[in-house]
Amino acid sequence: MTKILYLKTLCKTPKAKLKITKQLKEALLSLNGIDDTYAKKEVNPNAYRDFILSNTKDFLEHAVDYSVNEHLCSYLKDLK
């Protein structure tokens, strides 16, 4: 692919921007071999909320452990 696309010249109208965006997305998906069917599925809006609520404790434990570890490492470096 030695062609250079100047997207500003191709996208002078909002419809053209949508068309170019769609074409680029399709081209990238075909090049990568990614199936786009997952993007068409409808997701329950409460699924995000439920995921966050069910994993909050684990995330906070990890964040605290990381913070304490970082603080102790910097403190021990200062002692040396």
SSE layout:
Blueprint (H helix, E strand, L loop, with lengths): L6 H4 L3 H19 L12 H35 L1
| DSSP strand content | under 5%
What structural class do the secondary elements suggest? mainly alpha
What is the number of domains? Answer: 2
The radius of gyration over CA amounts to: 24 Å
Your description of this structure?
The chain has 80 residues and is an all-alpha fold. It has two domains: 31 residues; 39 residues. The mean pLDDT is 77.
Would you kindly provide a brief summary of this structure?
The mean pLDDT is 77. With 80 residues, the protein is mainly alpha-helical.
Which features does this protein show?
80 residues, mainly alpha, 72% helix
